[in-house]
Design a protein that fits this description.
Layout: E1 4-5, H1 12-18, H2 27-36, E2 40-44, E3 49-51, E4 59-65, E5 67-73, E6 79-86, E7 89-90, E8 106-109, E9 113-119, H3 120-129, H4 131-157, H5 160-171, E10 177-183, H6 185-191, H7 201-208, E11 221-228, E12 233-240
Antiparallel strand pairs: 1-2, 2-9, 3-8, 4-7, 4-9, 5-6, 5-8, 6-10, 10-12, 11-12
Helix pairs in contact: 3-4, 4-5
Amino acid sequence: MKPKEDSSSESIFTTLRELPLLKGVSQARLQEVVGNTRFHFLKYAPGETIAEADEPCTHIKFVVSGSVRLSVTNASGRFSVDQTLTAPQVLAPDYLFGRSPRYPGSIVAIDRVGIMQIAKEDYRQMLSSDPVFLFNFLNTVSTNAQKGLHGILAVATGSLEERIAFWIISMTQPGSTDIVLRCQHRDLYALFGVSHPGTHLLAKVANLFPVGAEVIQLGQNVGSVFTDANEGLVRITRTKGVNHYISDAC
């Protein structure tokens, strides 16, 4: 079913000012942008697909109301990461340009969701027309690139706590919540360098992250890790604040 287009502009300026890539722009500049740029407002019902994995990124999409579930799965299907993104958010901005401008995973509406989208070429013109737009975008993609590097380095040299925490951060978008990682136990052992499979990794995680323990501080996110030894998954609930990871049984 096609999403319904919502042409209402009643609160467009309030909506635009709340979006992470449009913050800091003056009211006059926003009015000019609205007059010169084609904004499309779409509505999705719960369960509707907003984007498929590997679908070309022809627009930059913003969640302006509701929440969506972004699910990334590797080619073999043995590993997946799910996360919830709640308005105001931008969807996979790192994948708008570059060698592979395709969505990294499927995006599905959790509840009634409002999406504002701008065609890639129109957004490129916005970036070239105003240094604030350009700075916001470059800052977002640079931050995401840097956290990925820290995650890789931590997996190679850090403590087990650092490896798990940095790896989770590098695999998810800032501001995401209810993060779930699914993979087989032996893959978790290999990923985090646990050399003795007899020691259950998820039990180790629970021991390493006692309730209330602050492990790592990055950005403006707080994470709580919940592990389920039976299902072999790690669940993280993230809210605004400072990153710390807590483990417990689901």
